[in-house]
Design a protein that fits this description.
The chain is α+β, with helices and mostly antiparallel strands. It has helices spanning about 1-50, 60-80, 85-105, 105-120, 160-165, 190-205, 235-255, and strands at about 130, 135-140, 145-150, 155-160, 170, 175-185, 210-220, 220-230. The chain has seven helices and eight strands. Strand 3 (about 145-150) and strand 4 (about 155-160) form a beta hairpin. It is rod-shaped.
Length: about 280
């Protein structure tokens, strides 16, 4: 009787030792796998972000694929710790994959839609878009969702499938142009041809070769000249300040003085006070 009890205890202790060590090894593998996946994704993101050839739209997807690949490898190593054979594992994973695919078909469709968004490129990171009822700037195209920053600084996370199925308006694919108009008056005594030549020189120096320069109006006391140029919308204010300064300086160097338009009252003509009645 004592011999049977001793044998049972030995077998129990051997099993506890074997599976305890396997469990400890599995925990260590999971911790190392999680750490390695995080470290690899951070390092890959940092290194690829420095490469000029790396598209910012594709970067999050590549990093996510690497991260999940390492995690899956760690999970397979954990299962191997418990002696699960790969042939049996493939059969189990096939059945489990089918069940999980049916249960998570919406999530998996987001992954497929994310891949299609990256491949077809209807927008890039940094583009301003309007799609699925949302308007803003694309911050990231992830494996499951796309992050959009709205104009009021709200962060919107949109499932990829929602964007893939909706019409997308891209405001940034083609450059948005703005028109800068600068007008000023010259006296009739001024050398008009010389003034226009000065304006053309300003256009060349400011890289505005397509600028429209000419006489806009022949007034009663002065000639109104117009300098019109197309610039990127984001640079309209800066370009106008630079052009105003350059035109003023070049006309001054050329000895051409321009006139100021007569000041207009803010609220219409000031009524003339009525004459006091005669006594």
């Amino acid at each position: 009787m004592d011999f049977v009890d001793t044998t049972t205890a030995a077998v129990l202790w051997a099993n506890l030792t074997h599976y305890g060590l396997a469990l400890l090894g599995a925990i260590v593998i999971l911790i190392l796998g999680w750490w390695l996946a995080s470290w690899a994704s951070r390092s890959l993101h940092k290194n690829l972000a420095r490469r000029h050839w790396m598209d910012a739209t594709l970067l999050p997807l590549v990093v996510s694929v690497v991260r999940y690949t390492i995690l899956i490898g760690a999970l397979l190593a954990v299962l191997d710790q418990f002696g699960i054979q790969m042939t049996s594992l493939v059969a189990v994973l096939g059945a489990a994959g089918l069940a999980i695919g049916l249960a998570l078909q919406g999530t998996l469709s987001n992954v497929a839609a994310g891949v299609m968004l990256v491949v077809l490129r209807p927008f890039h990171v940094g583009h301003a878009i309007q799609a699925a009822g949302f308007t803003g700037t694309v911050q990231e195209v992830g494996l499951f969702a796309t992050v959009i920053r709205a104009d009021d600084n709200r962060v919107i996370t949109v499932p990829n499938k929602l964007l893939s199925d909706a019409p997308i308006i891209n405001f940034s694919r083609l450059p948005v142009q703005a028109t800068v108009n600068i007008t000023f008056l010259l006296p009739y005594a001024a050398d008009l041809g010389h003034a226009i030549e000065v304006l053309r020189r300003v256009a060349a120096e400011q890289h505005k070769e397509g600028a429209l320069i000419g006489v806009e109006e022949l007034g009663d006391a002065a000639i109104k000249l117009r300098f019109q140029a197309g610039v990127p919308a984001a640079e309209a204010d800066t370009a106008k300040l630079s052009l105003n300064l350059a035109i003023r300086q070049q006309l001054a160097v050329a000895g051409i003085r321009f006139m100021q338009e007569a000041a207009q009252p803010l609220y219409g003509p000031v009524p003339t006070p009525a004459a006091p009645p005669h006594a």
